[in-house]
Design a protein that fits this description.
Mean pLDDT: 86
Shape: rod-shaped
Distance between the termini: 32 Å
Number of strands: 7
Strand order of the largest sheet: 1-2-3-4-5
Number of helices: 11
């Protein structure tokens, strides 16, 4: 047996679907009279006439193919299932219309849908990676140890130099962890209260313009009605004030979580394995730190074996000088790999966006 709440919800959803059929019928489409909407034929004609909806009414297909641009956010596969459900509820003449009746939500779909909408909004709002990559560079500079290793009381025999090297390795990796967390906070600030991003996110979630490449799955007009026949019609492509009104309610918030995902999203015909030059920020830092420290420990031990005194100061300075050059090279590679792709940046950093937003809109 259905709960009373679920009974009401399902009943209202059915009534909303009926309203679509009522309006299409009033516009010369398949004939329909609703048992859930009193005097539905009169209501339908009133809406069509008041909104000056010219042309024959019809329904879209159940699904439409996603554009290549949208599918790249689902790589190595393509968007499928419910994510291909059109934003358009029906067409009247050349108008592709999304009907909003009662408690209509902004967007359905799962994590991939929200993530693809996020990346689309980033691109559509013209957000460059320049500033965030610069901030990442500042964090990377802080990977160098700040501790005074002389306080360890190490004088410079083989065992003590090895201990100092491991200490440097641990501190650099800790600093890398701190840098990673700081960078995630930096990214969140980039999107906090960013009106252009919020409007671009809302517009794509409403219309599916990029998702469907402006085919019949893309909704251009928003028809807001009640069951008594009162109606408003907005063109989301031209009425920026309406999109702004909706985005002020949506208020998308973005957090970033660490992920173990691969660089599959970077796959192209010329780069079939999605190679990035190295796997992620963590593999680049981890392997680099380990290589530098191990090489200098080995060199210092060889020098001691040959009777050449290698002080702790000389040992640490060599590590620091080599690390500075290595960090500089890392940044150059990062810039080359990322270009101005937000997707590539997040893949390299081993993080993914978590988007939350108000899905219950007063249309």
């Amino acid at each position: 047996m259905l709960t009373f709440k679920r009974f009401l919800t399902e009943g209202d959803t059915t009534r909303a679907y009926d309203m679509e059929k009522v309006i299409v019928s009033a516009a010369g489409g398949p004939s329909f009279s609703s048992k859930l909407i009193p005097d539905s034929e009169t209501i339908g004609k009133k809406i069509v006439n008041d909104m000056k909806l010219d042309g024959v009414g019809k329904f879209p297909k159940n699904t439409y193919p996603a554009s290549d641009r949208w599918n790249k956010y689902f790589a190595p596969k393509k968007a499928s299932g419910s994510t291909l459900t059109p934003k358009t509820d029906f067409m009247i003449g050349d108008k592709k219309i999304s009907l909003k009746t009662g408690d209509a939500q902004l967007m359905g779909g799962g994590v991939n849908e929200a993530s693809a909408t996020f990346f689309t909004a980033v691109e559509e709002s013209g957000m460059s990676t320049d500033k965030v990559v610069l901030e990442l560079g500042n964090h990377i500079k802080n990977l160098l140890p700040s501790s005074n290793l002389k306080k360890l009381g190490i004088k410079g025999n083989k065992t003590e130099l090895e201990q100092a090297g491991k200490f440097i390795e641990i501190e650099m990796l800790k600093n890398a962890d701190d840098a990673h967390h700081a960078f995630k906070n930096d990214l969140r600030k980039v999107f906090s209260d960013n009106q252009k991003f919020a409007e671009a996110f809302t517009h794509e979630a409403m219309t599916g313009k990029v998702k469907f490449g402006n085919n019949d799955g893309t909704a251009e007009y928003f028809l807001i009605v009640n069951y008594e026949g009162s109606a408003q019609l907005h063109n989301a492509f031209t009425d920026k004030s309406y999109v702004r009104k909706i985005s002020s309610q949506v208020k998308p918030d973005v957090k970033f979580k660490s992920t173990q995902s691969t660089a599959a999203a970077l796959k192209t015909a010329s780069n079939p394995k999605g190679k990035t030059g190295y796997y992620t920020f963590w593999s680049a830092v981890g392997l680099g730190v380990k290589m530098i420290v191990e090489e200098e420990i080995k060199n210092s031990q060889n020098m001691l074996n040959e009777g050449i005194v290698d002080s702790l100061k000389d040992f640490t300075e060599r590590i620091m000088n080599k690390a500075k050059k290595w960090l500089s090279n890392v940044m150059q590679k990062i810039k080359k790999i990322i270009g101005d792709s937000w997707k590539a940046l997040l893949v390299f950093m081993g993080i993914e966006p978590q988007i939350s937003f108000n899905n219950n809109i007063s249309w």
